[in-house]
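Human: If only I could read backbone structure tokens as easily as an amino acid sequence. Underneath my words sits a plain record pairing an amino acid chain with its backbone structure tokens. Take your time, and here it is.
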Amino acid sequence: MIDWSAWFSMVNLLALIAWVALILLPRWPALLSGILYLGVGLLCLIYATGLIGVLTGLIAAEGGGGADFTTIAGVRSIFASDAGVTIGWTHYLAFDLFVGLWIARDGDAKNISRFIQAPILLATFMAGPLGLGVWLLLREPAARRSGRFR
């Protein structure tokens, strides 16, 4: 039986280390690659392994009544188990970290101060779409000034 609590703690620690590095350390190419592959990539691998394992029955999960993503009751039942919560949380961590990495690279390319980026990255870490939404509003004028719409 898998100790989902231990996996939950491990993915949280992995994401936290990557976020601290992204926000506080100089953005060397090797660091950004490490965050992408050892942070986002590893979280994606853990997510995919857990999801496929549970859905195929290769990994036992309590309360396994199948996955129903079409109703609120079905999604609630997925998240009613430690396996579902851990796998779902890993999904959030991977995507939010990927978005944070994009924000950091985009902000650096547009010469937006790291002091402005830091609270937006923190918002992305804590509430993904909120940080992304703020970044999209902020980056537009900077993109127009710099002529870099990519």
Summary: The chain has one domain: 4-146. The chain has five helices and no strands.
